[in-house]
UniProtKB/TrEMBL annotation:
Designated name of the protein: Diadenosine tetraphosphate hydrolase
InterPro entries (UniProt xref): HIT-like_sf
Stored Gene3D superfamilies: HIT-like
Superkingdom assignment: Bacteria
Length: 166
């Protein structure tokens, strides 16, 4: 694996601490929760009582999707028991759907949570043969690659939706 930048890179000083941190979307004082107010149902690929799987608004990775809980909670620990119990099986279904796409070598699961206070995770498929994008390098590379068109995102979303429906 490698960075998508030429050497030599220079280390910079970390930013000043911001304490308290500003409110995220969905927290008191922050913007409305995007996952709760999700209005673009065309980007919802699959859902059940606990989970909604969405295609992103923009991505450069064919098959990148995000999974959000249907309840507004922030972390794994806050999920109701039925959400906790179904998380693993739903993740396995998403993983199988993405691995069935042409050109996918591995599927990585990420949870950051810095932008919004609604529990969600990202599934990011690593393109086959792209060993430079292994592991934690994939999101860094993703930021440097040209974005897919809306038509490409929608087409792969239809494939994922079809597989999830089985």
């Amino acid at each position: 694996m490698s960075l998508p930048y030429a050497e030599p890179l220079t280390v910079r000083e970390p930013c000043e601490l911001v304490v308290p941190e500003p409110p995220r979307r969905g927290e008191p004082g922050g913007d409305v929760c995007g996952a709760c107010e999700w209005s673009d149902r065309a980007q919802t690929l699959w859902s059940d009582e606990q989970w909604r799987l969405h295609s992103p608004g923009q991505t450069s990775l064919r098959g990148a999707v995000w999974l959000a809980s249907t309840v507004h909670v922030d972390s794994f620990a806050d999920l109701p028991p039925e959400h906790q119990a179904s998380f693993g099986p739903v993740c396995a279904r998403v993983d199988r759907a993405l691995m069935s796409l042409d050109g996918v070598a591995r599927v990585y699961l990420y949870r950051w949570g810095d932008g919004g206070a609604h529990f969600h995770v990202w599934f990011m498929p690593r393109p086959i043969g792209r060993l430079d994008m292994m592991g934690h390098m994939l999101p860094v590379w993703e930021d440097t690659m040209p974005p897919l068109s809306r038509a490409e995102i929608d087409a792969v979303g239809a494939e994922i939706s079809s597989t999830m429906a089985i």
